Amino acid sequence: MLDVACPWLPRIEAVEERDGVTAVLEEYIQGDSLAFLLKGGPLPEEQALSIAVQLCRALETLHGLDVVHRDVKPENVILRGGDAVLIDFDVSRLHKAGSTTDTRVMGTTGYAAPEQYGFSQTDARADIYSLGVLLNEMLTGKHPATELAPGWIGPVVGKCVEVNVDRRYPSAKALRAALETGDPAPRKKRRRSLWIAAAAVVVALAVVLILRLSGGEDDGRHEPLAVSGDIADDRDIARMEFNYDLDGDGQEETYLFGIILDLPGRRPGGIDSRMLTDDLVEPVIAAPGVWRQDGSYEVAYEFAALLKDPRVELWCSERWGDKDPLLWASDPLDDIWEGAIAVDYTAETAGIWRYVGSATLDGQLLTGAASTSIERTNTLAF
């Protein structure tokens, strides 16, 4: 069930099945449970965050195998020296694409996500919910519905325990990033909202660009990269189909590999069109990503941990302006998709700019592309 080496998960010694019953022999973890520790009252913030980050890493490993724990609670966390070990996989299950509910309704009241009560199938975000409850209990001794953790951690917990699963953190990795940076909302979300802001923000963005070019501001990003040049291959916008057995049921499903643009919609293989005035700067994030091929174009976040050597290059397909856009090495898109780039467009970069992405999956090369079309205008429309 779990043949991986992870310091925050017990080692599986043996698995045996007889008469339809599966027996799993796990490593014995010596230490006190988190439930025992919490009998002494709430924990210091630094200790609670350390435990939560370690549990995020345990869940990252589990979710990378498509396993949902479904019972994250103090009794199932053993403190072994400086390590927090997540134990007890009795109610764990594999996430199965296409299922609408779990086979059995299981979990612990107070920690179990709403969907575990039969409303829908559980996925990795059910564990995000439980970990949010657990983090809040470590800091306040209470369920978040009664008292929310103070300071910046409160909004983090609130996002974890959203009833709507789509409003929770999309992954344990994204939650860990919020806990490690002290930022409840990824910075990229704020960048994406800039292009629909009011005129005053547009002016502020122009000032940001001037400061950046003059070295007057350090925004924490890398040195600007060079645009790869004029693309020789003028192929159509590409999205590549491939087959993969993600849920481990022996049957391969069809997925799409392409470029995820940090925009509403996020359909693979699209063209992003922008009309820019001289004083407007528009940032775009592009990363390699995968969608489910079932007509819904749902982003398949599970592949983020499976793609090897993901990368995106920016090429010029057709040039109307007299400058290249500023190109930066980006933080992971959605705090999960690696190999992303950040591009700052202005009216002077008018043209069609092609993102060409690639990654390998179990030795198979995946490729895809998307474009941004920048046009210059004298009128700014809101």
Pick out its properties.
four-stranded mixed beta sheet; globular; alpha+beta; 7 helices; 382 residues; five-stranded antiparallel beta sheet
Provide structural commentary.
This protein has helices spanning 34-38, 45-64, 124-140, 153-160, 172-181, 187-193, 199-214; strands spanning 12-18, 21-26, 32-33, 67-68, 77-80, 83-86, 93-94, 240-244, 253-261, 271-276, 282-292, 308-319, 326-329, 341-345, 351-361, 364-376. The radius of gyration is 23 Å and the shape is globular. Helix content is 22%, strand content 27%. The model is unreliable at 91-107 and 187-220 (pLDDT under 50). The strands form 5 sheets. Strands 8-9-11-14-13 form a 5-stranded antiparallel sheet, with helices on one face. The chain has 7 helices and 16 strands. α2 (45-64) packs antiparallel against α3 (124-140) and α3 runs antiparallel to α4. With 382 residues, the protein is an alpha+beta fold. The longest helix is centred in the N-terminal third of the chain and has 20 residues, at 45-64.
Summarize the biggest pleated sheet: 5 strands, antiparallel
The count of helical stretches stands at: 7
The mean pLDDT is 79
Q: Segments where pLDDT lies below 50 for 5+ residues?
A: 91-107, 187-220
- Proportion of residues in extended strands: 25-35%
Q: What is the number of E strands?
A: 16
CA-based gyration radius: 23 Å
Shape: globular
Helix content: 10-25%
Task: Please trace the helix and strand order, writing H or E for each element.
Answer: EEEHHEEEEHHHHHEEEEEEEEE
What class would the helix/strand composition place it in? alpha+beta
Write out the strand line-up for the largest beta sheet, numbering strands in chain order. 8-9-11-14-13
Beginning-to-end CA distance, first to last residue: 53 Å
